[in-house]
Amino acid sequence: MNPNLCRVVLRPRGPLEVFDLTLALIRVHAGRFGLLAALTVLPFVALAFGLTYVVDDPWLIPLFLPLVFGLLQAPFTVLAGRLLFADEVPLRQVVMEVLRGIVPTIAASGWLLLALLLGLGCGFAGVAITVPATAYVTEAALLEKVGVMGCLRRSMRLASSNPGIALSTAFGWAFLTFWGVVVAEAAGQSMVGFVLQLGQPFGSLVAGQVTPYALFGALAAQPLMAVYRLLLYVDARTRIEGWDLQVGLRAAGLAAK
Description:
Largest sheet: none
Distance between the termini: 17 Å
Number of strands: 0
Shape: globular
Helix content: over 70%
């Protein structure tokens, strides 16, 4: 990391301002994010939709999507994190870094799934407690490289220091995923049913069926969520640990050499 190449002003921001910064970062590097999305999202969509024809109850598949979400978000977390301090980041480098940290990444996804299941067992209030505690497990595993148990402890430490940001992270994940499902389902049904006049060959989510449009929407929202959560993580470290000062002092030290 070269602190002299920091591309954003490190200062406390609100969740909406962080989301605006997320869209700006993706817009500036649209080609790189788009190519990575094509290489990661589409295979997951094909696999998930194929499983709907194999599994007796297709509604079992969404229960395991949080585990897939973590794995899908990982390369975008690395890419966004590197782009904050670099002009160019080869996708090959991103893939290799994710593969080197694949065990902690899988563990981080497992912590997220476990937190979600435990929270659902206690109702909405439980989810609001358990899921925010695991908000930053992926960043801790991939960017800080703190290991399987360390990523959970690190995430809990950051979340407990500023519960509001952690709750915003969890709410943002739920909202963006739901938004992706609704938009993709509506767009898919309109294109196939009204424009192409093919009816509903894959069924309809409204009718209680798992459609490829809904699966695509849920999975396609994860790259956006990964970048958003990464910037919320940066915001949390800035507020709690004075990361802006750390980066500034490191940059000043390099400039003095």
